[in-house]
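Here comes a specimen:
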Amino acid sequence: MPVTEPEPATRPQPRRRAPVDDAPAAVVRSEIPRWFTHVRVRLGLRWAMLLAMVPMLLLPVAGLQFLSEMAAQTRDERRAQLDATARGFAAALHERRDLFGPSPRAPLPGDSDTLPVVTLESVRVDGVPDEWTDVARVTVPSRPEAGAPADTLQVRMAMARVPAAQARLYLLVEVFDERYLEPEPPLVLGAEIAAAFAQPDGPSSGQGRAGDVLLVTAGSAHDDLRPLDAGVTVDDDGWRAEMIVPADTRFIRVRVRDVDYQASRRLEASADSGLLALATLADGSDVSAVLRADAREAQLLATLKGFARAGGRVTVTDAGGQVMARLGEVEAETAPVPGGLGQALVSWAVGLGEWGRARSEAGVPLAQALHGFPVTVSERREHADGRTDWLTTSGQPIWFEDRVAGALLLEQADDSDLARAQAAFEWLAMFTAIAILATLLTLLGFATLTVMRIRALKRAAERAIDLRGRVIAEIPRFRLRDEIASLADGYARVLGRLREHQQYLANLRARLVHELRTPIMVVRGSLDNLNDAGPDDPGHDAYLTRALGGALRLERIVASMSEAANLESMLGDSPLERIDLVLLLRELVAAYNQAWSARGGSAGSAPAFEFDTALVQAQAAVVPEAIAQALDKLASNARDFAEPGSVVRLRLSVAPTAAGAMGYRIAMHNQGGPLPDLMADSLFDSMVSVRGDGRASDSHLGLGLYLVRLIAEFHGGEPFARDEPGGVAVGFTIAAGQMPIDDAS
């Protein structure tokens, strides 16, 4: 049974590295900022948690931000849908030569010719053509009837416009005839004149006599001409008509029927200008461009008619931004919006971060599209009735032969965001209130429980140590395993180490008194006997020998105490070396056999040491002197407690350490009695020894295996002692120190 042999009486501690807790109070205090030492605010844990809840007040703001993001996401989805629809619309208009291709003149409908239109400063309808003096006349083709001379009827006409505030058109018709014969009764209405022209036999009043008739029809469409009333003025050369033509007139037709002035009044000649298109309209625009624009608008409307079913308004412009066609209306899907603060909050939330940008982007889609860049934006609008909606506009360029020939705008309005945002806001407000209240109660309860547990730990720590610094109680364990429970466990470990130190001091005092009393008494008695005896006394040499033996025993005790005192310094100052444990242990075994043989041991009494390992190499980073010192203690114990003539085996094997790292196990196996049941868990504690007086003649302070424990812990391992069949195994483990391990097995 291995027991510690006499060792130094002091209690060293391994110097792994000086921890921060071991620093002097003055040093620790100096690391605290000076300004912090003047802070005297006493803030309890519960108040601290209440202050920590202040950021929760940002939850409503976060909720409004959430609504803003939700509304923005909805608008983004709508913009994406509208953008895709607009791209589809624009794709149907790309490369349309009939709509955007170059066409200087548009074909006139109905095989019509162009009638020049001159510009005059003013025209007065009085039958006197003074204003028309320099205006070129257009001859109206005439056709004489059977037997009539070719120059029987000559008709000329002229068209003019006056670009005043309200543009007007004027028509002058000059008829060169022998005599003007007015129908009887006179035809004064355009409808009656048109009816008279419908009679095959010539102009007639129906019930009266026929006469010369002038029929002027005009209109904005070639197939929708209406008769105009014209006043006739007679002169020596014939007769003329001067009249005002409607400003929207684009097409005109002049027809004249001339009858014989004889009593029969038969049809003598007729003139017909045919369908004429005005070269210049009342506003000065070219009729060809207008007709071309009308034709393109009709084609665009026919193309966009199906697109209008998608909702919203579709607008197509040319490259200059002029509207070519527009179809549909922008109408919002109205939704009830709450008034007062709710409306203000919801409106603000929905428009958060979008107000300035939306207003600044108004009108941008058309300009961007005409520059060849598609763009989709949303504009926030406020109506007079308090409604708020978002107008989403997508602008797409229309391409023709690598140039932007126009732009397509698709507009949709919707205020359903506000309705969804209002419902979400009400739900979020209720949820936020409940969450804040529940969080407040939970934090208060948790703070109260935490404060109670901390106070309980404080009271337990105060009761654990009396006024004289002695440990008199234990730290209770908390059921809730958290940081406070870990703190309580730390206090318990600290108190345990303090109790162990107190026990160590008590054992050290008693052990030193016991160990020092005997050699002191031997030296004192021997010196007294030498003082009483003379040089010739037969016991003089025996007294001197006993005095020297007591002094040597005191010297060994002091040496053991110095060894223990210097162990901490040695471990802290000695560098780790990479060595092969196989070679070190083999050399130590040979040294043990040689040393005990030299002391006079016989083969039949002193145990023999053998080295047993399956490793070829065992590289480790250790302090070789410390490993040798620990093995010296184990070898001394094994020699004292092994059966006479038995073999003590020193074994080296690979084994994990307590921390789970790879390491080595070093063990002394000797044949002898088992470990004592009451001492098995404390063999490696300080000042523990179960050696009997007959085991050895040396003094033992119970520090041998304690030093083994310190050395093992310094190398990242731990000591162990266990019973085996027929003997005991005592040893320790060490970490390999990231060194390679070669296992021959």
Remarks:
- Residues 483-532 form the longest helix (50 residues).
- The chain has 15 helices and 26 strands.
